[in-house]
Amino acid sequence: MTRVAGLMLFLLLGASAMAQAPANGTAQDTTGEAVSTPPAAASTPRVAGRYPPVPGGFHRGNKGVDAGSPTSIGGYISLGKLIPVLLIFFGWVHYSYWVAEDSRGLKVRPGFWSSAQLASGILAMLATVTVPTYPAALLGGLLLWAGPLGMYVYERNQRVPESGKVLTPDHLQKWSIRQLARIGIRLGGGKAVESVVGPPIQFVGKTRAGQRDERSSRQVETSKGYMAARELVYDAILRRATDIHIEPNEDETTIRIRIDGVMYPTEPFDRSIGDAVVNIFKVLSAMDITERRRAQDGSFGAICEKREVDFRVASQGTRHGEKLSLRILDQANSVSSLEGLGMRSQMLEKIRSVVDQPHGLFLSCGPTGAGKSTTLYACLGHIDRYEHNIITVEDPIEYKMDGVTQIEINTKSGQTFGQSLRSILRQDPDVVMIGEIRDDETAKIACQAAATGHMVFSTVHANDAISALYRILDLGVEPFMLSSSISAILGQRLARRLCSHCKEPYHPNPDFLKKAGLTADKVKEFFRPPTDPKETCTHCGGLGYRGRIGVFELLVVNERMRDLVRDKAAMSAVRAEARKDGMLYMKEEGLRLVVRGVTSVEELLRVVK
């Protein structure tokens, strides 16, 4: 590309010189127009042995004729006409490089568009040096170069978010404000310049009651570290992070973000900037910035790409200072349907039949961060919210749902799950969702509500579905009450999905296949992240994984299991009955995903023990 550009520049300069040089016997004035020279006097004497004088003087090039000089030489190139040609040429060089890099990064047919840019530049050069009239040559060269560039911009804009599009009115406005700000012209004041220079995100402060607080939003705009806080949050949202951890050390503030359930370090802050960023988030969350030892919590919001993202903030004093954890609750990443959970079709049909029951208790179990609340939200999304009165009790409300009465408990004021559940049962609910069963009071009321004509959804911390059943018994619920109310228990984990653009196949170990109960003739290959990537994948950022999928085990309680629970049978007896009924363990369900190439063996073993 560099050699082609140099050759084209040489040809342009030569063609411009030849096109602009006039014929002998004429001259050009300073405007480039040809002027006639007066004829020499007819009576000029001729001297023997010398050439006769040139009639009218000698003129060559574009230099104007001086009144006292019979000759005029120089100015072979018209700068007024050459400068626009050079601008088109250097513009083609610059944007050809941009198209090559941008198309390679976005994987938007890089080979095709780089070739198109090269061909358009050659055609533009030919049009510039061959079209006889200057305006037509300039216009033709410009159209031949800008046409393919515009088509590439249109195609790449279809594949990027709104904030990443170029040559849109919003992009041109921000670009103009930035360029004017560089030379000291600030349109709209410093705030407008900062909004276009920094990332496209705006913080929204909230009060302790969860209401918007414009005062705190304006207060932090002039604070030290405000731009660093915006960049940190915006980068976390773009990378699909679910948590941000700001951890102070002796000399710096460490930043780590959780992507698809795994922690990754990012660029740390200086200690002073880190403390300022912590104070900004505390002010936005209506927390006491003077209190650095006692644990506090709050929330704030951010408007990013025309949608609002909620943040749940928790602080804790440590040896080196105050640590802050931000949970990102992005509505755009939520799962709104049962189909989006990634279950196999047979399990999905069983879940639907349980959710459609008029009464019963459906539990989702697993460790923290296993997607239990997401599963319950998907179940509520399957129910007609206009024919049923749906009430939820959560701590806190993670995702907002239209047509659903959502209640957030407040333990500081004495409002607990049990107390809230007692009150909402007098509100004539058809479906009740309890954020978590933590104590005996909540467990007993939930079972009573399920046994008296309500459909109850809740979560419980347990390793698998069978353990969750006995966890409820350990909380003090009578066996006969649990056996008559429980409908199904779903155990789950979240495993990372392999990136579909960079995953690589390999032949699995025959010993592993034998232990897993798989035959080598049916399983030809497994998939894993690239072991030696030639270049960083733009879709997963070089992680090898993008997104997560659920690994489930479903225990549907039949009549035989109810008898076993009522008789306080051993866990092994219930497990044997579940296997007879066709229940697959979580690891067996995960192997299905490995065989299909959805996740890797290493990832499955990481989340399922």
Taking the alpha carbons of the first and last residues, their distance comes to 55 Å
CATH homologous superfamily name of the domain at 338-494 and 548-583? P-loop containing nucleotide triphosphate hydrolases
CATH fold field value of the domain at 338-494 and 548-583: Rossmann fold
Rg, Cα atoms, Å? 37 Å
Q: Indicate the proportion of strand residues.
A: 15-25%
- Main CATH class of the domain at 338-494 and 548-583: Alpha Beta
Class from helix and strand fractions: alpha/beta
Q: DSSP helix count?
A: 20
Portion of residues in helices? 40-55%
Query: Which architecture name of the domain at 338-494 and 548-583 does CATH use?
Result: 3-Layer(aba) Sandwich
Number of strands: 21
Q: Biggest sheet, open or closed, and with what strands and sense?
A: 8 strands, antiparallel
Q: pLDDT below 50 for ≥5 consecutive residues: which ranges?
A: 17-42
Overall 3D form: elongated
Overall pLDDT, averaged?
82
